[in-house]
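Predict the structure of Serine hydrolase.
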Amino acid sequence: MPEDLLPGTRRALLHRLATAQAEGRAPTMAAGVVRAGEPRWSAGRGDTDDRLAYRIGSITKTFTAVLVLRLRDEGRLELRDPVGRHLPEVAPPDVTVAQLLAHTAGLVAEPPGAWWERTPGTLRPDLPSLLGDGPVVHDAGRRFHYSNPGYGLLGGLVERLRGVPWDEALRGEILEPLGMADTGSAPPARHADGWAVHPFADVLLPEPAEDYGPMAPAGQLWSTVADLCRWATFLLDGDERILARATLDEMRRPAAPPEATDPNGGYGLGIQLLRHGGRDLTGHGGSVPGFLASLWVCPADDVGAVVLCNTTTGVAISTLAAELVGIVAEREPRIPAVWRAASDPDLVELAGPWYWGPSPVALRVRAGRELELTALSGRARATRLRPEPDGTWTALDGYYAGERLRVVRDASGDVTHLDLGTFVFTRAPYDPAAPIPGGVDPQGWR
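Done. Here is the predicted structure for Serine hydrolase.
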């Protein structure tokens, strides 16, 4: 079992949290760090602890996205389905489920009417009322444009296909299996009040805590640091009871291009992406009147951090959570697992150098029959490859992502070449014995 964080690391985390709370003038602030599947540190400033509930705003969207992807994995829908196939009453019906998840549907950022986070959800009682008369501001699929109503529609989609309210599906499918007893659409008995802090005086104004009605799947949940550390662990390590590991990986992949004003940001399927301090982070932030929240995990370092506070503005909480991840990763670098022989001996014949034309690459055989294609020189395209039941491999990233690798043999069973999405790899540069597209000059090299 991994050891707890070192005293110096814990002090650095506490110092960063205390500085943020004081400089941001947040009434209370609580934070926690997870590593190797366990909570390793938590602390609070003000009258708080890791079991006090705060509203978490748009971190709610990560839960809604998992509910939708569970339906996809069960065959109840496809990500390419037009939303109108399942919710015919909404307009425009031709945007896809995937576009809603990735905020590329081109829908408005907010529902019509008064500020929805400070007014009763009864003002928007049904799904059509979340969009109003002019819901489209961009062509679908062309750019990232954050849309809160889009996640209201996704929550409605869950309700329609499950036949139960969104929060009931959430409780049964995610919260109860993960032991997140203090998370829900209503505040538990121990919860923080939401406040606005005057910009030029140290005084407070209470913020309303409304029920958002059909907009709840976009930002209504309450949770605690302790519960969100469980959620951060899920986002790091997965849990097959909740979601297949391959689907969790799919959530993390960029599905929308970053905006020019935020080149280090991005979005997957219900998951925000961030490049910070040389690390690739995934997670989500949250902001509703009276509350700010942030959750980031770094799979490469196996570290996650959660920060919650009860103020409307004034704290760069997303940066703070990312900095907590960085403090742990830099002070206590992840110790690699012990290397053990794990490759299948029957695949060794594929290992070693190959050539696409004159460009040398290396094919490495990994555990679980996985392969890895890397450059030996220059800028050859690299990818990891997942084995398939039919004896092929599917490329997982880079230029080749989604393409199939086939091992081609001659009549005697010897490997002649590899075919990766029509790209021919041979054991020698432009091997004349292989089916090189365009052929090989019969006079050979000179």
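The radius of gyration is 25 Å.
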